[in-house]
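Exercise 7.
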Amino acid sequence: MATIRPSSDLRNKYSEISEFCRTYNEPVFITKNGVGDLVVLSNAEYERITGKLELSRLLEEGFTAMNEGRGLPASKVFASLEKEFGMHG
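Solution. The predicted structure, written as tokens, is:
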């Protein structure tokens, strides 16, 4: 369930909001004059979300390259990874 707080709580109850975000990894929605204005997240949750978005962007870029014939065969990709990181399948 969404946690919604007025903007005055951001000023007056910052520590409480911060602890909630860090403990539950959930956002707190801040309203101003009864209208949604901000979303507050812990730094860790923000990093997790932006990491997922970046991964999604990179995968989409890869799929586009493959569909346009710019991709490499999987065997070449894995051979390159094995060579670079010393991994053996």
